[in-house]
Amino acid sequence: MTTIAVTTWSLEQTAPTDLRPAAAPEGDVRVVRSEVPSPEFSRFLYASVGGDIRWTDRLGWTYAQWLAHLDRPGVETWVAYDRGTPAGYVELEAQEGGVVEIVYFGLLPAFRGRRIGGHLLSYGTARAWDLAERWPGLKPTTRVWLHTCSKDGEHAMDNYRRRGFTLFDTKVEEEPEVATPGPWPGAHPA
């Protein structure tokens, strides 16, 4: 099996004032919380956003695994819509001690390069900072973090840094090289 070297960068914000919001894109772009845990919708977002950049860790999840994950306190999915069409999403997950991870963030390929990503990341990061306001019993957020890797889109790191995230860790690991799965088995993204 062929392997590839993958660099993973971990970034963080340690205060809400670290966030440097992007300007809202032109047109009818809205960000809405998907409040009903929906394995079908979440799997659609995951596969559609990550299919061309080798997101594979959740593709084998069962319906029950998706539901158990989504139905936990402090897990939220925020979806960007462009004129009513899902354009991308950000998934938040509360962790111990007031820490919130941006677990997944990205846009469907057709919506990249249209200034939606900076807006969605800004909005999602702000929701990470106020997560405890929507989940009684969670500690107020003290840190928001995420990771990106060399397999992600070419503009990902720049977007994170422009939004005020700072680097705190870098790792390089060999990973099996996997085929780009596309949004469904056998699909070949353009």
Structure described in brief:
With 190 residues, the chain is an alpha+beta fold. The protein contains five helices and seven strands. It is globular.
Task: Describe the 3D structure.
It is a single chain. The protein is an alpha+beta fold and 190 residues long. The protein has one domain (1-174): 3-Layer(aba) Sandwich (Aminopeptidase), CATH 3.40.630.30. The protein is 24% helix and 32% strand. The protein has helices at residues 39-50, 63-70, 116-129, 131-134, 156-162; strands at 3-13, 29-33, 75-82, 85-94, 99-107, 143-149, 166-176. Strand 3 (75-82) and strand 4 (85-94) form a beta hairpin. The two termini are 26 Å apart. Keywords: Ribonucleoprotein, Ribosomal protein, Transferase. One of its GO terms (cellular component) is ribosome. GO terms for molecular function: acyltransferase activity, transferring groups other than amino-acyl groups. This is GNAT family N-acetyltransferase.
H/E element string?
A: EEHHEEEHHEHE
Secondary structure category:
alpha+beta
Under CATH at level 1, the class stands as: Alpha Beta
Name the helicity range: 10-25%
Q: In what order do the strands lie side by side in the largest sheet?
A: 2-3-4-5-6-1-7
**In oligomeric terms, what are we looking at?**
single chain
Average the pLDDT over all residues and give the rounded result.
93
Radius of gyration, in angstroms, nearest whole number: 16 Å
User: How many DSSP H or I helices?
Assistant: 5
Main pleated sheet: 7 strands, mixed
CATH superfamily: Gcn5-related N-acetyltransferase (GNAT)
Spatial separation of the terminal alpha carbons: 26 Å
Strand content: 25-35%
User: What is the CATH architecture annotation?
Assistant: 3-Layer(aba) Sandwich
Could you name the CATH topology?
A: Aminopeptidase
Number of strands: 7
- Large-scale geometry: globular
The overall number of domains is 1
Pfam families: Acetyltransf_1 (PF00583)
GO molecular function, one term: acyltransferase activity, transferring groups other than amino-acyl groups
Keywords: Ribonucleoprotein, Ribosomal protein, Transferase
Organism: Streptomyces calvus
